């Protein structure tokens, strides 16, 4: 049995985390039909899915419109009834003609009576990915339970990113479905227990989940300090189990798997109602939004349409972000669609986004104090800036979570996170080039070995033929005349 580790390393808690803008707003369905859905073919780490439809085709809600393409790829399904307008290399454009997806009947038999390999395949066919942001195919993660003995499932309900409240509302409003999904995941992985980690700044969610799990001895709720980035898998594992993952090792090798609360709902709906992953809850927030809300939206809905449902903008935003303010990415096109991993859309006002000019490092050490990976950002930054990537790698650049905690507390406003992200991308390019060079060397060596082998084989064959001719000549000469 694991024990809750109180000694959490690093982390920050913003004075104003912005959650109050939407934490009391119930989840709303999409009120108006979007004119178009743009369903991206790449919503997972693997290769883009292969489209199964063509322009002009009619599709039904829940219909598979793109199939998985190799490892770490997932199929895609039509969120709503409609007609395919176009199919490109990047997305399927769909013109919907009904707002609500059909309600599928419950399965006639319990999934708890089925073999886990069958259930994992059904989850794969439902196109479920991790909904915490990484979008890793859930079936691939669950398949690790066939390789490793899983003792504990950690259910991530911490939602530590500022402004985000979609998971909070899911826990308050869909606690029974979350627990149903957890029971199915326990059955699939053969895990002994599940621990739901929820930050203490979500008391209503904690109460709802405690009530939903009160009669299940295998599932318990563990309140956590409100500390960013406690929602990161490595930090959550350390906080709830005391295990510190070694670099390069999977959590499954320690007997632990981590799943997001929204992913548990998706599993429940897929296995109990045969409903693929076509919608998700998205937080639309920031003080530049007229009426911040939590919206249950079809995958592929343009951001602009979601903002319109929130009565538009009250002022011109200084920053437009997909995801949270710490680890999210800038929105370059307000009409781009949401994907399976989109947890939030932020339109930040001037009062929320103070962009200051960077100055020289003060050597205060605050960045090192808040780093959850116990790195030394003040020593890493000059190495990255001078492109000394090998030395930066030795100091742990590859372990950086890109959580942004160091940049948040830096009084000199240094671009720490941006610099480390660039450094990690350069390390990735170096690894690719090194692997490519090694593969080329191996192929050249194998080619040379084949040439030598073929030459030797030809010599041997030639010698064998000569020997055979010589033997025949001798036999002819020895015959009596």
UniProtKB/TrEMBL annotation:
[4Fe-4S] cluster 1 binds at residues 361, 364, 367, 410. It is an enzyme of class 7 (translocase). Belongs to the 4Fe4S bacterial-type ferredoxin family. RnfC subfamily. Pfam families: Complex1_51K, Fer4_7, RnfC_N, SLBB. It comes from Celerinatantimonas yamalensis. This is Ion-translocating oxidoreductase complex subunit C. The complex is composed of six subunits: RnfA, RnfB, RnfC, RnfD, RnfE and RnfG. Part of a membrane-bound complex that couples electron transfer with translocation of ions across the membrane. Residues 351-381, 391-419 form the 4Fe-4S ferredoxin-type domain.
């Amino acid at each position: 049995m694991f024990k809750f580790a109180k000694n959490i390393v690093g982390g920050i808690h913003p004075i104003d985390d912005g959650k109050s803008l939407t934490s009391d707003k119930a989840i709303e369905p999409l009120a108006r039909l979007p004119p178009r859905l743009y369903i991206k073919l790449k919503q997972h780490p693997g290769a883009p899915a292969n489209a199964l439809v063509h322009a002009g085709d009619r599709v039904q809600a829940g219909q598979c419109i793109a199939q998985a393409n190799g490892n770490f790829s997932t199929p895609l399904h039509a969120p709503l009834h409609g007609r395919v307008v176009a199919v490109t290399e990047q997305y399927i454009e769909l013109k919907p003609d009904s707002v609500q997806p059909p309600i599928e009947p419950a399965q006639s038999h319990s999934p708890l009576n089925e073999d886990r390999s069958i259930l994992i395949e059904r989850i794969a066919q439902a196109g479920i990915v991790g909904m915490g942001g990484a979008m890793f195919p859930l079936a691939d993660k669950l398949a690790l339970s066939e390789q490793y003995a899983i003792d504990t499932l950690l259910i991530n309900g911490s939602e530590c990113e500022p402004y985000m409240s979609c998971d909070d509302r899911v826990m308050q409003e869909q606690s029974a479905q979350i627990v149903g999904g957890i029971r199915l995941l326990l059955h699939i992985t053969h895990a002994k227990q599940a621990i739901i980690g929820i930050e203490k700044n979500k008391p209503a969610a904690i109460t709802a989940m405690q009530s939903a799990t009160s009669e299940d001895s295998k599932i318990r709720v563990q309140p956590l300090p409100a500390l960013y980035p406690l929602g990161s898998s490595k930090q959550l594992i350390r906080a709830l189990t005391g295990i510190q993952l070694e670099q390069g090792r999977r959590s499954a090798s320690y007997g632990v798997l981590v799943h997001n609360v929204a992913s548990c709902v998706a599993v429940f709906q897929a296995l109990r109602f045969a409903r693929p992953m076509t919608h998700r809850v998205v937080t639309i927030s920031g003080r530049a939004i007229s009426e911040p809300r939590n919206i249950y939206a079809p995958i592929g809905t343009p951001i602009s349409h979601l903002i319109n449902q929130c009565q538009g903008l009250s002022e011109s935003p200084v920053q437009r972000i997909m995801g949270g303010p710490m680890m999210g990415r800038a929105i370059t096109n307000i009409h781009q669609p949401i994907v399976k991993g989109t947890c939030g859309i932020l339109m930040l006002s001037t009062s929320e986004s103070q962009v200051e000019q960077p100055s020289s490092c003060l050597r205060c050490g605050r960045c090192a104090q808040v780093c959850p990976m116990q790195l030394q950002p003040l020593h890493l930054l000059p190495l990255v800036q001078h492109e000394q990537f090998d030395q930066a790698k030795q100091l742990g650049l590859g372990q950086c979570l890109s959580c942004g905690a160091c940049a948040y507390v830096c009084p000199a406003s240094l671009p720490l996170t941006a610099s480390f992200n660039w450094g990690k991308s350069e390390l990735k390019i170096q690894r690719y080039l090194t692997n490519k060079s090694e593969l080329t060397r191996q192929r050249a060596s194998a080619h040379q070995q084949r040439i030598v082998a073929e030459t030797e084989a030809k010599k041997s064959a030639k010698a064998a033929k000569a020997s055979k001719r010589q033997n025949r000549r001798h036999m002819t000469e020895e015959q009596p005349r």
